[in-house]
From TrEMBL:
Complex formation: Interacts transiently with the RNA polymerase catalytic core formed by RpoA, RpoB, RpoC and RpoZ (2 alpha, 1 beta, 1 beta' and 1 omega subunit) to form the RNA polymerase holoenzyme that can initiate transcription.
Protein name (database record): RNA polymerase sigma-70 factor
Gene3D superfamilies tied to this protein: 1.10.1740.10, 3.10.450.50, Winged helix-like DNA-binding domain superfamily/Winged helix DNA-binding domain
Family, similarity comment: Belongs to the sigma-70 factor family. ECF subfamily.
Entries under PANTHER family matching the protein: ECF RNA POLYMERASE SIGMA FACTOR SIGJ (PTHR30173:SF36), SIGMA 19 FACTOR (PTHR30173)
Pfam families, per the entry: Sigma70_r2 (PF04542), Sigma70_r4_2 (PF08281)
InterPro entries attached to this UniProt entry: ECF_Sigma-70_Domain, NTF2-like_dom_sf, RNA_pol_sigma-70_dom, RNA_pol_sigma-70_ECF, RNA_pol_sigma70_r2, RNA_pol_sigma70_r4_t2, RNA_pol_sigma_r2, RNA_pol_sigma_r3/r4-like
Keywords: Sigma factor, Transcription, Transcription regulation
Keyword Phosphoprotein: no
Domain named RNA polymerase sigma-70 region: residues: 16-77
NCBIfam families associated with the record: PRK09636.1, sigma70-ECF, SigX4
UniProt keyword annotation of Kinase present: no
């Protein structure tokens, strides 16, 4: 009897392991936090162990449904928690060179800037968008997962697409992205005001997430001249003894900054043919430890 129960649990673990990358992909895109996504998956696993698995016809669908519904609830809590967060909140960066499965099916809804835009959706709208755009679920299944009608599910996805399209600009090529990132890092390290201003789009904005732990701007900084001056003011201590490595963070090129072998920052940009229009500084050490294996 004990052997049979053990074998059954082993089978459950094998099924869970097979679909785990997709489950993590759903939860991470919903929450923008690797640590919170892992908490959701831990709860999914506990529920899967206790479930009557003999009546589950499609384990992958069952687990995806459970993950999404738990993530919707967790997202509501996370949204409320972020209202008291110190300074701008940014999603946890994920080194996708170390975790290529995260974007293996589809890279949609993975970039840090896109995850920030998804914060403006309701949790249910976000779930519908993630399931459709990142994992290509049919609308009927999305409706079943989020417990609504197929018509409403389509409306959620359509609204989310329109919202993101209105705010997201057409990016430059990967080669141009790297060129702009390299030029920005060189100008920032030198504290070169004219060079920085030349790289910025007219309406450039900078967000720094220090979480009240790391030294960082407590609010967004707008406009090239102002931003350039702030970057120069930080230059003497921020870049001292910095080791900079380029890597793929959330599927896009970013710079990982370390000092004495410890990661202390991740910088990513959004760029258009007008130049750099958004700079994202992830400086909260707790988030870096949770998300980047190299830290």
């Amino acid at each position: 009897m004990e052997e049979s129960a053990s074998a059954t649990l082993d089978d459950a673990a094998q099924v869970f392991a097979q679909v785990r990358p997709r489950l993590f992909g759903i939860a991470y895109r919903m929450l923008g936090s690797a640590a919170d996504a892992e908490d959701v998956l831990q709860e999914v696993w506990l529920r899967w162990q206790k479930a009557d698995r003999s009546v589950v016809e499609n384990p992958a669908a069952y687990l995806a449904t459970t993950t999404t519904r738990l993530a919707i609830n967790a997202t509501r809590t996370a949204y409320a928690r972020r209202e008291t967060y110190i300074g701008p909140w940014l999603p946890e960066p994920i080194d996708t060179t170390a975790d290529p499965q995260l974007g293996a099916e589809r890279a949609a809804a993975l970039e840090v800037a896109v995850l920030m835009l998804l914060e403006k959706l309701t949790p249910t709208e976000r779930a519908a968008y993630v399931l459709r755009e990142a994992f290509d679920y049919p609308y009927a299944q999305i409706a079943d997962i989020i417990q609504t009608t197929e018509v409403t599910a389509r409306q959620y996805v359509s609204r989310a697409r329109k919202h993101l399209a209105a705010e997201k600009r057409k990016p430059v090529s990967e080669a141009e992205q790297k060129k702009l990132l390299s030029a920005f890092l060189a100008a920032a390290q030198a504290g070169d005001l004219p060079a920085l201003e030349q790289l910025f789009a007219t309406d450039v904005v900078s967000y720094s997430d220090g979480g009240g732990v790391a030294r960082a701007a407590r609010s967004a900084i707008y406009g090239g001249p102002t931003l350039a001056k702030v970057i120069r003011a930080y230059q003497p201590f921020f870049w001292t003894d910095a080791d900079i490595v380029y890597t793929q963070v959330n599927g896009s090129l970013a710079a990982v900054l370390s000092r004495d072998g410890a990661v202390y920052g991740v910088i990513s940009l959004t760029t258009t043919d007008e130049g750099i229009d958004q700079i994202l500084w992830m400086l909260n050490p707790g988030k870096l430890t949770a998300a980047l294996p190299s830290s």
